[in-house]
Amino acid sequence: MPEWFSNLSNFDPVFALEYITNGKHLAWYLSLRFTVGAAILGAAVALFLGLGAATLRRARLAPVRWVAAGYANIVRGVPDVLFFLFFPLAFEQAVEWFWSRAVCSPEALAGARWPPCPEANWFLTSSQSMIMAGVSLGIVYGAFASNVIHGAMNAVPRGQLEAARAYGMSAGQVMWRVHVRQMWIYALPGLSNVWMLLLKATSLLSLLQIADIVQWADRLGAPNFMARVGLVHPDWRWRYYLVLFILYILATMASERGFAYLRKKAGHGMIDERVAT
């Protein structure tokens, strides 16, 4: 407590304003785009894969159902961090392997060096790493989304599907115009949880050497020494982590409001069966 009071008494607003608007802090603020980009891309991929896998699990062909169920069950059993580290590295080296067959000499390919020649080396930019991170998140959480959507499809009353068939709709029309349309009201609560997990997982971007908000917070909060002034500040990492803590809380609150709006829109015009019966 005495440290808090002494800091408040010595507070210099001019220094504070200059400190939080210097070049490094501006880079920290701009790094938020990697977190937002990875979250949006991951959510889009997860929704696409989840909807596709849930639909294929209802296919007539057994092998198709097995593949879809295998994706949902196997990927969910792999730790998120392990897959998050594995997929970008494996994809990068796979591209380098194929590219090396086109640009490297036979002598280089026969050696044990990796990549076989400098021309085959793929140096990823931060944006490319962010894209692969978003795809990794989408693959992992798409497996969770597929289970949520599959359960929501099973929750749609069969009477509505039978009525659609009685009107002469084809199997595809029943699936996309009735079944998928009606299942959103049941799927959105579970999908909101998947989104929250995906959003929290964006804090792992720094593991891929992406200069995201977490990595910048660690850099800026570490003890800062300058030759001309000495110690600028001691270990302030907990203060920067507190800022991230508040940021994620605000994102969670905004997400809850957004999903509440989507649930209201999805339920518009639907009849509650409990009231109908």
Structure characterization notes:
This protein has 277 residues and is mainly alpha-helical. It has a domain at 30-203: Orthogonal Bundle (MetI-like fold). It contains 13 helices and 2 strands, in the order H-H-H-H-H-H-H-H-H-H-H-E-E-H-H. The chain has a two-stranded antiparallel sheet. Strand 1 and strand 2 form a beta hairpin. Helix 4 runs antiparallel to helix 5 and helix 8 (126-155) packs across helix 10 (171-201). It is flat and about 75 Å long. Mean pLDDT is 81; it is low at 1-6 and 273-277.
Entry keywords:
277 residues; mainly alpha; MetI-like fold; two-stranded antiparallel ribbon; disordered N terminus; disordered C terminus
In short:
This protein has 277 residues and is mostly helical.
Percentage beta strand: under 5%
Distance between the termini: 63 Å
Q: What Rg, in angstroms, do the CA atoms define?
A: 25 Å
* Percent of residues in helices: over 70%
Going by helix content, strand content and strand pairing, the class is: mainly alpha
As laid out across the biggest beta sheet, the strand order is: 1-2
Give the CA-based shape.
flat
Question: Under the CATH scheme, which class of the domain at 30-203?
Answer: Mainly Alpha
Largest sheet: 2 strands, antiparallel
Identify low-pLDDT runs. 1-6, 273-277
- Individual helix count: 13
How would you classify the quaternary structure? single chain
Helix and strand element order: HHHHHHHHHHHEEHH
Average of the residue pLDDT scores: 81
At CATH's second level, what is the architecture of the domain at 30-203?
Answer: Orthogonal Bundle
CATH fold-type name of the domain at 30-203: MetI-like fold
Total beta strand runs:
2
